[in-house]
Amino acid sequence: MARVIVMDLSRHNTVLVGHDRYFVLHTEGRSLLVLDRCPHRGGPLSLARRTPDGRRLSCPWHGTKVGVAAVKRTSLPMVRSGDEAVVVLPDGDGGEPVSVIRKEVLANLPPGAPCAAGGTDGEAAGAGEAASR
Ligand code: FES
What we know:
5-stranded antiparallel sheet; binds FE2/S2 (inorganic) cluster; globular
């Protein structure tokens, strides 16, 4: 049975489902909830920087360039209305804990943009419980 959560995108940009993490990627005017895992060895694509052409993410661990199109294919079904997003979680055993957090996401910065001052990579700024339906 599919599980559904509701996210407030003004407060949260990341969903933890068991050992998997998904982050909100903004691309081509859309917001997608994509898997935060580099296909090379699992690095955090949320902390990747865009290549100068904006079409790939450069993984912070070993520099593999991952196409945004490939990252988009990992997205979960999500319907957005304003700041509210309804997300269908992947089928699992149903017992994985689910939480929503806000963390630094560099993958949404334009190519060459500096990091936010004082930000620390991967730091969770707040955790919350996902509202399940
Ligand atoms: S884990 Fe991403 S380049 Fe190695």
